């Protein structure tokens, strides 16, 4: 198959940042995707409905009035988040979920939740209102090896949380392990998961063998091949519980190419192309649309997009870098050849 037309995808996990970076990166997702769940880990984080509204206005200004892109806003949970804020969020037309970062787990998570099982009143309010809880599923215990943090999170936190709150709706974000795939499959419809393109394409050798490649460093960290194989099976799983979430996470070039580089892969400029590459390599392009465009809306109770996206098998090169104000941002696979090109059918 050299060409296919799919319903326009949505990105169910996206970092757009703010200021100059937002201005630089918003257009990429707005071209490919109808909607995106916008991560709230700004500095300071988006912790209130009022702050989410203000951020939404900045995102809409950055994509411009001609775009039909819909940012789906999220709130960042802290130890101080109140039940009243959750109730307001659940009733709000622009807020679609709340994000749980265990404090210290990743970029700008210092204000996150210190003990996710202790925020019982907030979890109860989420369960009652049906507002989804999006989890960064890694423990922060320094005694736990970085490659095990997701599996341990399932045992210590997510399993007990789902038992305690049987009606809570949860998305396990950017899953990276066979344990996460098995766990998501073992639960009912109320648990879904996003999978990034970079975790589907690469194992940890890509980051560490033959030199350290900082643009492959992200959290949760790339795992060994057997885990990638489990993710590939999940991506084509007919259950509909797994969907596209790029976790595209731009950082200025200097913050990545550094003695202590930031976590994040900036995949947004070629996100759908990278997923097409994955499904093509499996001989399962027939399953791409469910993953990119149908499963997510079903979980979130939203209609699928009316617009279409065309994917063509065309050799192209990922641009080396983009300007971001006075800085540069380097896309994932910068300068490398990829096999697919996505264009909107209404272009
Ligand atoms: O690689 C990542 N980058 N993982 C995260 O969880 C956060 C993200 C970011 O905001 O840079
Ligand atoms: Zn993220």
Strand content: 15-25%
**CATH-defined superfamily:** Metal-dependent hydrolases
Helix content: 25-40%
The mean pLDDT is 97
Q: How many discrete domains?
A: 1
Specify the number of helices.
12
Structural class: alpha/beta
Overall, the morphology is globular
User: Any idea what the radius of gyration is?
Assistant: 19 Å
Largest sheet strand order:
2-3-4-5-6-7-8-9
- Give the C-level CATH assignment: Alpha Beta
Tell me the CATH architecture. Answer: Alpha-Beta Barrel
Largest pleated sheet: 8 strands, parallel
CATH topology: TIM Barrel
Which parts are unreliable, with pLDDT below 50 for 5 consecutive residues or more? none
- Please provide the ordered H/E string of secondary-structure elements: EEHEHEHEHEHEHEHHHEHHHEEEE
Bound molecules: (4S)-2,6-dioxohexahydropyrimidine-4-carboxylic acid, zinc ion
Distance between the termini: 22 Å
Number of separate strands: 13
Description:
The protein has 347 residues and is α/β, with parallel strands linked by helices. It has one domain: TIM Barrel, CATH 3.20.20.140. The chain is built from 12 helices and 13 strands. The chain starts with a strand and ends with a strand. It binds (4S)-2,6-dioxohexahydropyrimidine-4-carboxylic acid (DOR) and zinc ion (ZN). The site of (4S)-2,6-dioxohexahydropyrimidine-4-carboxylic acid has 11 residues, from loops. Zinc ion binds next to loops.
Task: Give a short summary of the structure.
The protein is built from twelve helices and 13 strands.
What labels would you give this structure?
347 residues, alpha/beta, TIM Barrel, eight-stranded parallel sheet, 12 helices, binds (4S)-2,6-dioxohexahydropyrimidine-4-carboxylic acid, binds zinc ion
């Amino acid at each position: 198959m050299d060409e296919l037309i799919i319903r326009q995808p949505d990105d169910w996990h996206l970092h757009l940042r703010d200021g100059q970076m937002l201005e630089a990166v918003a257009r990429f997702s707005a071209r490919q995707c109808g909607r995106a769940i916008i991560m709230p880990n700004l500095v300071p984080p988006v912790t209130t409905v009022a702050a989410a509204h203000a951020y939404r206005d900045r995102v809409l200004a950055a994509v411009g009035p001609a775009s039909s892109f819909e940012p789906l806003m999220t709130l960042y949970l802290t130890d101080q988040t109140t039940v009243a804020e959750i109730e307001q969020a659940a009733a709000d037309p622009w807020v679609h979920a709340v994000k749980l970062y265990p404090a210290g787990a990743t970029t700008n998570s210092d204000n996150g939740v210190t003990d996710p099982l202790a925020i019982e009143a907030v979890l109860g309010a989420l369960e009652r209102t049906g507002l989804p809880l999006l989890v960064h599923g890694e423990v922060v215990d320094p005694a736990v090896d970085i490659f095990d943090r997701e599996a341990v999170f399932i045992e210590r936190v997510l399993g007990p949380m789902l038992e305690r709150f049987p009606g809570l709706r949860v998305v396990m974000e950017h899953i990276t392990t066979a344990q996460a795939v098995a766990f998501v499959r073992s639960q009912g419809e109320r648990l879904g998961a996003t999978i990034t393109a970079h975790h589907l394409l690469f194992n940890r050798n890509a980051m560490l063998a033959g030199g350290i490649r900082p643009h492959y460093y992200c959290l949760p960290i790339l795992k060994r091949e057997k885990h990638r194989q489990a993710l590939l099976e999940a991506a084509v799983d007919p259950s509909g519980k797994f969907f596209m979430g790029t976790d595209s996470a731009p950082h200025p070039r200097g913050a990545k190419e550094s003695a202590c580089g930031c976590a994040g892969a900036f995949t947004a400029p070629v996100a759908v192309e990278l997923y097409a590459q994955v499904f093509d390599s499996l001989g399962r392009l027939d399953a791409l649309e469910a993953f990119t465009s149908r499963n997510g809306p079903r979980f979130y109770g939203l209609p699928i997009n009316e617009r279409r996206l065309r994917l063509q098998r065309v050799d192209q090169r990922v641009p080396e870098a983009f300007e971001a104000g006075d800085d540069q941002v380097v896309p994932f696979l910068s300068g490398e050849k990829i096999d697919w090109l996505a264009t909107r059918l209404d272009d």
